[in-house]
Design a protein that fits this description.
Elements lengths: L1 E5 L3 H12 L3 E6 L2 H10 L3 E4 L5 H4 L2 H4 L3 E4 L4 H13 L4 E5 L3 H5 L12 E3 L1 H13 L6 E5 L4 E7 L10 E2 L9 E8 L2 E3 L6 E2 L4 E7 H11 L8 E5 L3 H12 L3 E6 L2 H10 L4 E4 L5 H6 L7 E4 L4 H13 L4 E5 L6 H7 L3 E3 L1 H14 L3 E6 L5 E7 L21 E7 L2 E3 L12 E7 L3 H7 L23
Parallel strand pairs: 1-2, 1-4, 2-3, 4-5, 5-6, 14-15, 14-17, 15-16, 17-18, 18-19
Antiparallel strand pairs: 7-8, 8-13, 9-12, 10-11, 10-13, 20-21, 21-24, 22-23, 22-24
Organism: Desulfoscipio gibsoniae DSM 7213
GO cellular component, one term: plasma membrane
Protein name: Trk system potassium uptake protein TrkA
Length: 465
């Protein structure tokens, strides 16, 4: 698919890399020469220096023949104009990043009339994901699949978890319908076999029936009290969206923000929240404001380092849960090591939204793991696809791929090597990131990853040990 991306900041760069690896023919439009040069070095794509909001740039034949335009500059207005212009010159589908709450909530005309098929708002999406984590009763991140009947859960193992710690997978006393699909250790992603040992400090990814996942998680993790008080460091867009949602749920919210003008604006828009105009890195301030009695402390400033450091300090000062917003995937291993309860990446969440939109209804859902080395995808097997009608052990799936569940009608199956995939089956697949395009192609979705991989005759079985 020929795709034009306008703007290669953090979000645009991430989307471009994902689409390039999946075989898209990319055109990049960017005003900043340094950014343009960097993306040209990293990816084999056509680059145009200029504004994405001008008809002159968009009517360039290379751009005009695109099937999709994604406008993700820092300007909402530029993104909207780019999409309107793109539709008028015949580009079929458009995506616009619109971050300003006044735009995203109060558009006088519909997004369709503006020529926008999908609006993405990384700040809002990140805030909603943080809210979801805060309302979970178990201190475990869970992602639902197969209409909620299958879940993926990640658990950081400690010495007291005797069911997992220091045991080979083949020797674990866990239900057969539960799979350990991956182990994250010191920043590396391991697709385990039966002889692999889970060590304290590892984060394991469990996939299985929702009721089994809930039972296992309840056994190794205590239920936590309902969140009632939240302290948010950073009054930017993410902080605003989060505070607004939490206040609507009846929680007591404090927002710490340094900028005086922004504090006045927040006080007007969030009358139910307490706005503190102060330096959030002042530990004495945090003590005075009752950090040790706070149910949750959330850091959503624009600096990853500040977010991680202050989340860690808040944890040491007594905050029951700490959540940090991060942009750089390289910091993901630190999250596990530092004891931060949850890290949210707006650009990964947004990239997932764009990929789901591009692939349409055939790809039901997609979950990008924080270190970007693996994905969990849920998709339908298309008629006459390569994988349909074959036993899993003869499917030729790339090495490191696990088909965790098959949903056939209302029946959820944990497959073995001899199970045969059928047309219209709904699969939940765990895969290394560079193999996703190949897997989608095998299921008839038309994906075509650029990387060459070695096929494995036994990959894809639900039982990996």
């Amino acid at each position: 698919m020929k795709t034009t991306i306008i703007g290669v900041g953090k979000i645009g760069k991430e989307i471009a890399a994902r689409l390039w690896h999946e075989g898209h023919d990319l055109v990049i439009i960017e005003k900043n020469e340094a950014k343009l040069q960097k993306i040209e070095e990293d990816l084999d794509c056509h680059c145009i220096k200029g504004s994405g909001a001008t008809a002159k740039t968009l009517s360039n034949p290379i751009v005009a023949e695109s099937e999709l335009l994604i406008a993700v500059t820092n300007s909402d207005e530029v993104n909207m104009i780019a999409c309107m212009t793109a539709k008028r010159i015949g580009i079929p589908r458009t995506v616009a990043r619109i971050r300003d709450p006044d735009y995203s909530k109060n558009l006088i005309i519909s997004k369709e009339d503006l020529g926008i098929d999908l609006i993405i708002n990384p700040d809002y999406s990140a805030a909603m994901e943080i809210n979801r984590f805060l309302t979970m009763t178990l201190p475990v991140h869970m992602e639902p699949f197969a209409r909620g009947r299958v879940q993926l859960a990640d658990i950081t193992v400690n010495d007291s978890m005797t069911i997992f710690a220091n045991k080979r997978l083949m020797n674990m006393d866990i239900p057969g319908s539960l799979l350990i699909v991956a182990i994250s250790r010191n920043g590396d992603m391991i697709i385990p076999g039966g002889r692999d040992i889970v060590l304290p400090g590892d984060t394991i990814y469990l996939l299985g029936h929702s009721d089994i996942i809930n039972k296992i998680c309840s056994k190794v993790k205590k239920k936590r009290q309902k969140v009632q008080t939240v302290m948010i460091l950073g009054g930017g867009r993410t902080g605003f969206y989060l505070a607004e949602r939490l206040c609507s749920q009846g929680m007591k919210v404090k927002v710490i923000e340094q900028n005086n003008d922004r504090c006045r604006e927040l006080a007007e828009k969030l009358p139910e929240a307490l706005i503190l105009c102060a330096d959030g890195s002042d530990l004495e301030l945090l003590r005075r404001e009752g950090i040790k009695d706070t149910d949750a402390f959330v850091t959503v400033t624009g600096l990853d380092e500040e977010n991680l450091l202050l989340a860690l300090l808040a944890k040491q000062m007594g905050a029951k849960r700490v959540i940090a917003k991060i942009s750089r995937p390289g910091y993901a291993p630190l999250v596990e090591q530092l004891g931060v309860d949850c890290a949210i990446s707006p650009r990964l969440i947004t990239t997932g939204e764009v990929l789901r939109f591009i692939k349409g209804g055939r790809l039901v859902s997609l979950f990008l793991l924080l270190n970007e080395k693996a994905e969990v995808i849920e998709l339908f097997v298309q008629p006459r696809s390569k994988i349909a009608g074959r036993p899993l052990h003869k499917s030729g799936l790339p090495a490191g791929t696990i088909i965790g569940t098959i949903m056939r009608g209302n029946k959820v199956i944990i497959p073995q090597g001899n199970d045969i995939i059928k047309e219209k089956d709904r699969l939940v697949v765990f895969a290394l990131g560079h193999n996703v395009g190949i897997i989608e192609s095998m299921c008839g979705l038309g994906g075509n990853g650029r990387e060459q991989v070695t096929n494995s005759t036994d990959s894809g079985s639900g039982s990996t040990w």
